[in-house]
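Appendix B, record 7
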Amino acid sequence: MKNIFVCVSVALIAVQSRAAIAIDGTVCRMNRAIDRLIVRADNGHRIRVAVGHSLPILFRSHAYDRADLRAGDRVHIEAARGAQVGLVARKVDLTMRVDEALVDSIFRSHKTVTGRFAMREGKTDFFSLHCPNRRYVRVDAKAAYGPAGRVLVASLKSGDLLEVRGAWPSKDLLQATSINLITDHEPSFCTISARRNETTTGETSAREADEQRFLDKSGD
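Structure tokens (predicted):
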């Protein structure tokens, strides 16, 4: 009888561990591969979620290109506790998009385009930028500068989120004057919320380093 009770208890624990956990919140950070997210839940908790590449992301019941995800997007996630990471997503629904990035990428009268670094053209200063709605823009970065000086295309990595500002000498080419790498940027309300209960800079630094380690373990 005791053995039966133990078996039932173990089974219940296993079922509970696989039970879906619902999260409504805002994306604060994500990695280049976009398979790991840090979400600020509406209850104030900062949650780490692994999102397998085979898992579709939906927006209004339609498949959504995960490369279009931006910090600040609103999401509804159903997840379960994983063996190697805290939470593993079973379902991801995008409930509200950050429209500014989409507008800048669609209307070429805007001089700033937001997208992900896709591919460098050989060993040149030209590369393709993956913009929202599966659009690609060719970028000439020969004269592009960033906050730290001249931007070297060779230093950019696939999936890096970039803000590119420049002019359009032709409809198919953006001549960049500045490139800002914003892969690790997050909305100010996310950082303010995260630091609210952190009493020292050391505590904040430790939490940020731990989050970065989580984000860097793509594909686990």
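Remarks on this record: The longest helix spans residues 2-18. DSSP finds four helices and 14 strands in the chain.
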